[in-house]
Each structure stands twice: as structure tokens, then as C-alpha cells.
Amino acid sequence: KLFFTDYGNTAKIERCDMDGMNRTWIVDSKIEQPTALALDLVNKYVYWVDIYLDSVEVVDYQGRKRHTIIKGRQIRHLCGLAVFENYLYTVNSDNLSILRINRYNGTDVQSLARLDNAKEIRVYQKRTQTTVRSHACEEDPSGTPGGCSHICLLSSNYKARTCRCRTGFILGSDGRSCK
To answer: Residue 47 in contact with residue 34, Cβ under 8 Å?
Structure first.
């Protein structure tokens, strides 16, 4: 799945398959300007920062179990969001500090370090990486991903795929080759 925020005409958080199909709104009320998003892949939760409402909130992948982690002025300048173990990590663009917020107890907020010009944060740790199993976009014997001549996108599950073409090409009738 692909998760993303939008704060155009109607602010929302959405999810869709990697090929863009099955687009679903998971949060579309009491949300104004969602700017950062982080996923708990193990427990299937979506965390986000709303800089207009000065809040960090969480919801499950289906849009249920919503609650506020932390709310207040300290949220106003947050950008970037990552989740690891019991904590959310974010960047305060006002004072360029890296913050750690307990995701179960929002009152536990610590400034860890300062970095010049930081706008995003990511946690890279082996436990945060899901185990890769055989999937529909693996290279076939000829070396093309999923048998697609240009782009292979996973669809509704790891066994299904959709082929797409680069700009200026159209997908052939075989659903794999681009012309």
C-alpha cells in the first residue's frame, strides 16, 4: 500500500495500491494541514503531523482507533516524522532540533540534537524493514521486472502487478510491452 496526505480543497489522508488503484480515504474529518506521515508497519498504524491544528495523531490502516498523541504550540514547526519502537522522531524547523516523542505518552518529549537545514527524518534499522518475499515485480529470466518492459507496480497484493510505461509511450495490448 501507498499512504499519502493531501491538504488541497479537502484535507485528508489516503491509501491506495502501489499502482494507484483502490484509492481510499482513511481520514477526512477534523484534519486541516497534514504535512508529515509515518507508518508503524508491524501494528499497522498511520501517524501524522497537522501543523494547522498543532497536533500529532494516529489511526489504524482502516481509519479506525483515531486518537491524539500530542497537541500544542510545540507541534507548529514540525516537519518530517518517523516511528521506531516506542517513539516518534521529528524535526522542529523553528530551532532545527530533532525531537523524540513517546508515542504512547505524548508528555514525554525530548530534544536529542540540532542539525542545520534538516527537513526530514528517517529511521533505518533492520527491524523496521519487512521481510521481502517473492513478488510479482521480481525480474523474470530476461531481466525485466515482472515481465513489464518499462515499469512494474505491485497491485492489490504481492502476487498481482500492473505494468506502466514511461512518458511518451503507450501500453501494448499484451499489458506488458510499451510502444
So the answer is: no
130: which DSSP letter? P
- Fold annotation for 2-125: Neuraminidase (2.120.10)
- Residue 48, classified by CB atoms within 10 Å of its CB into exposed (0-12), middle (13-18) or buried (19+), is buried
Do 58 and 75 contact (CB within 8 A), yes or no? no
Backbone angles phi, psi at 55, to 5 degrees: -145, 155
pLDDT value of residue 23: 93
pLDDT < 50: residue spans in the chain: none
Could you tell me where in the chain the CATH 2.120.10.30 domains are found?
2-125
Q: Spell out a b/e string for 33-43, using b for 16 or more CB atoms within 10 Å of the CB, else e.
A: ebebebbbeee
| Architecture, CATH, for domain 134-178 | Ribbon (2.10)
pLDDT given at position 127? 66
